[in-house]
Every structure is written in C-alpha cells, then in structure tokens.
Amino acid sequence: QVQLVESGGGLVQAGGSLRLSCSASGRTLSSNMGWFRQAPGKEREFVAAINWSGGSTNVADSVKGRFTISRDNANNTVYLQMNSLKPEDTALYYCAASRRRTYGGTFYGPGDYDYWGQGTQVTVSS
Q: Which end of the chain is more exposed for a tag (fewer CB within 10 A), N or C?
C-alpha cells in the first residue's frame, strides 16, 4: 500500500509561484506519478505527469510553459513547480501514483492511477 501526502499549497497573488510536494510512504515508489486538480463545481482534470524514471513528462495545455513536474526517487517525492499563477489555477491539487511504469510517455487519465493523496488547496487571488 502507498500513502501520498501533498504539501505546499496556499494563497498567492496572480503572477506568483508555488511548489507542491508529494511524499510517498508505505513502499518504495518507482512507478508513474501525476498531478490532477479539481475546482469547485468542475470535474477533476489532468495537470501533469511523469514516468518512473523522470525521463518522460507531460503537462496540460492550460499550464504549459508555467508548470513543471519533477521527481526525486531517492526521497520518494514528486514536485509540481507552478509559476505565473492565474486565478483560474485555483483548485484542490491531488497527487496520484500508479502501480505501473512506462519507459516512454506518461499516463493522463485518473483511471490510470491507483493511489491518491488528500489534496492541497491552491488559491490564486487577482
């Protein structure tokens, strides 16, 4: 079993930056990871994903050029660096882990992930 704990959320002004962290415990994490977000009244949406080695990453078009995903397997942690934040980035951000790994490409859909954190709130004021 894998437990995921997100941190780093908060309130920031538009144009600011935050770095989210997702720490995994329970067993060594060596599989694909992702970040999703859900705003009030909206469905959960894909934000970013990274394969097991960190060699493949993808981000949603809405955050491309602003958000970066990375990982530190030695410390079982995945990061989401968020720059140039906009009010529309306001949401509850979730970390997710898959039981599987890819050697090229990443997973995009929530159904590809098996473990989820509780989420960390990001609020961007205008």
A: N
Work out whether the CA dihedral 72, 115, 48, 38 comes out positive or negative.
Answer: negative
Q: State the Cα–Cα distance between residues 67 and 17, nearest whole angstrom.
A: 10
DSSP result, 85-115: --GGG-EEEEEEE-S---SSS---SGGG--E
Question: Closest Cα partner for 57 from 10, 14, 107, 122?
Answer: 107
Report the candidate in 91, 89, 45 with the shortest Cα–Cα distance to residue 67.
89
Secondary structure tally for the chain: helices H, strands E? 0, 11
Q: What is the rounded distance in angstroms from the CA atom of residue 18 to the CA atom of residue 9?
A: 7
Q: Are 73 and 105 in contact (CB under 8 A)?
A: no
